[in-house]
Amino acid sequence: MKPVLIMLQLLVVSTPSPDATDGTLQRYERTSPTATWTPVGKPIAVSVGAAGLKTDKREGDRASPAGLFALGPVVVTGNPKDLRAPYVRAHEGSVCVDDPQSAAYGLITGIDAFPKAATWQSAENMQMYRRAVVVEYNRPARAGRGSCIFLHAWSYPGEPTLGCTAMSAEHLRSVSAWLDPARTPFLLQGVAPSPGSLLASLPPTR
Question: For the chain, which terminus, N or C, has the lower number of CB atoms within 10 Å?
Answer without folding.
Answer: N
